[in-house]
Design goal:
Length: 370
């Protein structure tokens, strides 16, 4: 079986057994299944789902191929991707995770198909420096690339090692919102876009929606000031500066952290402050700088040299210190809960597409109420 037309390759690895991990896994599967259907409707020749949980993607319409991970093999994304490209003879592969750009519609996916239709060697991606979706042609160009560990690196590898020309999709909420953490799940829930079956997978988890609602009220307040810290890009700043009533204070740090090399040492001005003054004074200081705060906590963790488990990070995003094993992260999360201002925690997507989605919802609800 070979595929010569644009072929979507969806990777999904079910994570640990913790309740917060199960929440994110369930959301990624539900939204990933939706993306598969959107891609087929947009003109993709086929979809291949590479997963360690084949049953989660059962029942999808043809031509969908579910390709199980090898049960006893150590997982290696680089090796797995190259083998699939070779085995299926993919001429125009498009790689993404199951939770990547979950708001994508037929129009955006059709644009990917159109970019890969010409014979000219090229790359198409939603973000060249930290991609969530990467397509390219010819498919065997991947065999000329050096080793990589994450899909974020693919566009740069394909340009630098294989000489392909990059094309970046227009930036929009659909192409920039990603589903990686509970913060992203909460944003989808508030927007009314989360499939109902997701929450039934973890009925005992409580989503801190009220904290998000408190932050969202700041968007509408002409006298308010929103503090945002983390891997914030200029596009997010531009969007918030033009689409919110409040003032915006941004600490943009460690852009490209996820794709940085193994020897990279993260440095954060807020990380220095946190290490110097401790958790309580840290959040008191933030309260002097804004009326609400949105924090990409992964930057602070990297600065401090922390390596909490995935479940601990996700429980922190849920503002649930009782579910966190790492003592420092538990104390930090409790500090966020006790802060004089509403604080929400998450990862990269929270301070990019997540903020844009929450802001849009805040204004839609405001307009309906007036």
């Amino acid at each position: 079986m070979t595929f010569h037309g644009p072929t979507l390759l969806v990777f999904h690895g079910r994570g640990g057994a913790g309740p917060a991990e199960r929440l994110v896994d369930a959301a990624q599967v539900a939204m990933g299944r939706r993306t598969v259907e959107v891609a087929l409707a947009a003109g993709f020749e086929a979809v291949i789902v590479a997963t360690n949980d084949p049953s989660a993607f059962a029942g999808l319409p043809a031509p969908v191929v579910v390709d199980p991970d090898e049960a006893d093999a150590t997982y290696d994304f680089d090796r797995r991707l190259r083998r699939i490209v070779e085995r299926f003879g993919l001429a125009r592969p498009v790689v993404m995770g199951a939770g990547a750009i979950p708001l994508v519609e037929r129009e955006e996916m059709r644009a990917v198909v159109e970019q890969l239709t010409p014979l000219a060697p090229r790359i198409v991606t939603n973000n060249f420096f930290s991609s969530d979706l990467t397509g390219w042609t010819p498919g065997d160009a991947i065999l000329r690339c050096g080793p990589f560990t994450r899909d974020n690196e693919l566009p740069r590898r394909l340009r630098d090692d294989a000489g392909l020309t990059p094309v970046t999709l227009p930036r929009s909420l659909a192409t920039q919102f990603d589903l990686d953490t509970p913060a992203d799940v909460i944003a989808l829930q508030i927007a009314g876009l989360l499939p109902p079956e997701v929450l039934t997978a973890t009925p005992d988890l409580k989503l801190p929606v009220h904290h998000y609602r408190a932050v969202m009220r700041t968007f509408l307040d002409r006298k308010g000031e929103l503090l945002i810290a983390g891997r914030v890009g200029s596009e997010t700043w531009r969007h918030l500066e033009t689409q919110t009533a409040c003032r915006v204070r941004i600490f943009s740090e460690e852009r490209g952290l996820a794709a940085a090399g193994a020897g990279h040492r993260a440095k954060s001005i807020l990380g220095f402050l946190l290490a110097e003054v401790g958790t309580q004074r840290f959040f008191r200081t933030l309260a002097e700088l804004g009326d609400a705060a949105v924090i990409d906590a992964r930057v602070l963790e990297a600065h401090l040299g922390l390596a909490p488990s995935r479940e601990d990070r996700f429980q922190s995003d849920l503002l649930n210190p009782a579910g966190i094993g790492d003592s420092f992260l538990r104390k930090f999360t409790q500090g966020a809960l006790d802060a004089p201002i509403p604080v929400i925690l998450g990862g990269h997507s929270l301070v990019t597409g997540g903020l844009a989605l929450l802001n849009d919802v805040a204004w839609e609800e405001h307009d309906r109420a007036t």
